[in-house]
Amino acid sequence: MTRTTFRIGVMFSTTGSYSVVARSMLNGAQLALAEVNAADGPITLEPVVVNPSGDLAQYRALARELLSSGIRQVVGCYTSSSRKEVIPCFEKFDGLLWYPSHYEGFESSDNVIYTGAAPNQHVLPLVDYLASRVGARAFCVGSNYIWAWENNRIFREALSARGGTVLAERYLTVGDTEFDQVIAAILDQRPDVVFNNLIGTSAYAFFRAFRAACRAQGIDQAKEIPVASCTLSEPELKEIGEEAVDGHLSSSVYFSSLSSPENSAFLQSYTAAFPDGPVVSADAEASYIAVKLLAATLAQAGSDESRLVRCAVANQRLLAPQGEVRIDPQTYHAWLTPRIGRSSTDGQFELLLEARQPIAPDPYLVQSSPRFATSMRPPLLRMVKS
Amino acid sequence: MTFRLLQNFKGGRALVITRRAGWETTLETTLAKLGVACDYPEIIDGRAQLDVSALQPERDILFIDGDLEGALALEVNPASKLPPVPVIGLVGVEAPSRLKALVNLGATSFLRKPVHGGAVYTALFLGINQFLLRTDMYEKLQDLESRRRGRRAVIRAVVSLMQEAGLNDDDAYSALRRDSMRARQSLELYCEEFLKRRAMPPDTPDRTSSVTLRGGNKQAM
């Protein structure tokens, strides 16, 4: 059989503040590339790997460089700010970005295939879980960019609709690790739960500092003020360290502790290929899925021209480590299986809850958000002079 | 009524007044992602076949192609300048005359042709919410205008009560205000009715003195 070779871009920030997750994403992509190239299929993928180092200007420059060299398909980006930075370039060159990470939704570019979770697949299941089993008074912290702003907004609206309250929201610059004031405010308010949208080194520092501050006040943090996230993954648990690793809630479509033949095979191959880590994350699995789906799509389309790839990707299916995954032809997002896990001392997540089957992506929350935005209510009582 | 921002457009219907040429596919597929269905009223002899009186502001959104001259006779409220449903202008030729025509039809946002998928959510969000905001502001203006017209009745009622009960103007006003709140009426409407009752002959059964002339520091909600 004649094999066709396609050059593809692979763009992850393997250095910088969120490099731990990004390196696991690169590993996931490289594992899938190796499997595709070793298989007896009709295509060979030739990756061109670039590292923007978490710098938005570098993302823009490298995306342009890849696309202007003739590459049309790129797997990459972790933060929403980097994705939004490169989308105009993909639109200009009519390339396709295969974006393998959970994100805050409210986007559906024809030049992006989204293989990570949409908000109805991560934050809404988390709100359901928290409101019914943990508590409905939340304190939100996040890195100061669109992911945290929007994810907190969705969280606030969903929690308010269930009778809950967001006591406060605090944002810190990406990479900031100074949390004294934020932690003092949390301990002052004593919420039922902290909703965390910090990323990278900021998140790891926060988990450590918050656990230590609670311990100093005799508070069992994991039980009394648990931290819930939509980003926390296994390689990040290792970065947090033993002292503060357990008891954190995470809403994700993949945990490496899942029990299935596909996941066992994935873990075995991943560990053998990357013994020095980072260990598997949900985003590594999403990157693996992205490359696998890209390969299947290119094989079907017989071309890497975006117009043909867009047609061929609709309804692509894959039995992935997390279970069945398929691409929604209307939104180019993936059907995925939401799950809630709790971290344990061994750096893994104990599965607490999972959907029975993959659920449809709803990036604009058309099916699952209130018609009107919640607003700050004026006081119900007004004193007037008689 | 308090203005609330509409953020989920599920169940909406976009009526796109244009000659179909292919570019509208992007608009239609993007609207479908937002839960909005598309209809294209037929254009016969340059006129869109659309029953404007059947439009529903809670559901319908008009997308009007500015390059079609007079395709739709849309009656805009002369006082509020508001169309019956939100209007989003589709801009091809960016000439002041065409933009003015769209503004005169009550367009509250615009989309350039050919439509770029990434611009649709913003145009829809802005177009619908500006329409709702302007509707809300117009209702508030009408309410304020009606109250302004009623101020004469308030002045007359205050004077009447001062003469009748020997009160100073502050106490007369406070008594009227308190009683209007008890009656769950605006002060202006309450004063108009108060004066009407005073104008009736003494033996009319409806004539009552409802103003409570007790003092104290009552607080009303």
Structural overview:
Chain B: It holds the Pfam family ANTAR. Chain B: Residues 199-221 are annotated as: Disordered. The complex is a heterodimer of chains A (386) and B (221). Chain A has helices at residues 19-38, 56-68, 80-93, 119-134, 146-161, 180-189, 200-216, 221-224, 234-240, 261-273, 282-301, 306-313, and strands at residues 4-11, 43-50, 73-76, 96-99, 112-114, 137-143, 165-172, 193-197, 227-229, 249-252, 317-320, 323-327, 334-335, 339-343, 349-354, 384-385. With 386 residues, chain A is of the alpha/beta class. Chain A folds into 2 domains: 4-117 and 259-336, Rossmann fold; 120-256 and 340-354, Rossmann fold (3-Layer(aba) Sandwich), CATH 3.40.50.2300. Chain A is globular and about 65 Å long. Chain B is of the alpha/beta class and 221 residues long. Chain B folds into 2 domains: 12-140, Response regulator (Rossmann fold), CATH 3.40.50; 148-199, Winged helix-like DNA-binding domain superfamily/Winged helix DNA-binding domain (Arc Repressor Mutant, subunit A). Chain B has helices spanning 24-33, 96-104, 117-165, 169-182, 187-199; strands spanning 12-17, 36-39, 43-44, 47-48, 60-65, 87-91, 107-112, 219-220. In chain B, the strands form 2 sheets. Chain B has a 5-stranded parallel sheet with strand order 2-1-5-6-7, sandwiched between helices. In chain B, strands 3-4 form a two-stranded antiparallel sheet. In chain B, β6 (87-91), α2 and β7 (107-112) form a beta-alpha-beta unit. The radius of gyration of chain B is 26 Å and the shape is elongated. Chains A and B meet through β16 of A and α1, α3, α4 and β8 of B. β16 of chain A pairs antiparallel with β8 (219-220) of chain B, so a sheet runs across the interface.
Work out the oligomeric state of the chains in this entry.
Answer: heterodimer
CATH topology of the largest domain in chain B: Rossmann fold
Overall domain count of chain A = 2
CATH C-level of the largest domain in chain A: Alpha Beta
Tell me the series of helices and strands of chain A, N- to C-terminal.
EHEHEHEEHEHEHEHHEHEHHHEEEEEE
How many beta-strand segments of chain B? 8
Largest interface, with counts of residues having CB < 8 Å to the other chain, equals:
A-B, 26 and 27 residues
Structural class of chain B: alpha/beta
Secondary-structure-based class of chain A equals alpha/beta
Number of strands of chain A: 16
Q: Which residues of chain A form runs of ≥5 with pLDDT under 50?
A: none
Strand order of the largest sheet of chain B: 2-1-5-6-7
Count the domains of chain B.
2
Q: Quote the distance from N terminus to C terminus of chain A.
A: 92 Å
